[in-house]
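Record 1 of the preview.
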Amino acid sequence: MDLAAWAAALEASGLGDAMRGGVRNLYPVVNLAHVAGVILLVGGIGVVDLRIMGYGKRIPLGPLSRMLTPLAIAGLLIQAITGFMLYAADAGPLLDSTVLRIKLALIAVALVNALLFRRLFGDLENETPPHLARTMAGLSLACWLGAVGLGRWIAYL
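->
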């Protein structure tokens, strides 16, 4: 099955129907959960990224990262599930959305960056992170904020 056929099938599915109003108030509830996922994801990883970049040097980096990273991961999982559900409501037209494609590309870059960061630096207990770690934290923050901005933009297309 090609991508267009898959998107059409998803939109025509029970999930697509439910999201378009087949289940009363499902879309706004899922959208609210998507926003909560953004708060956990970008709030958690954004604070860690800012600390790695040099803000809040009084706060120990290791404990901060260990506290907020699980929240960011939970937010990412919420985002993935709710994002798929929101996509199902309008999958056909969204398949051709350049804004959605760029958003997904930014998410992919952010995820690869995060995995590479963990591989290179682990939990990064060093209170003065190396330049590469600071650069990767800046890239992370830019990608996540860009993805959030583009996600909001999709609602107005």
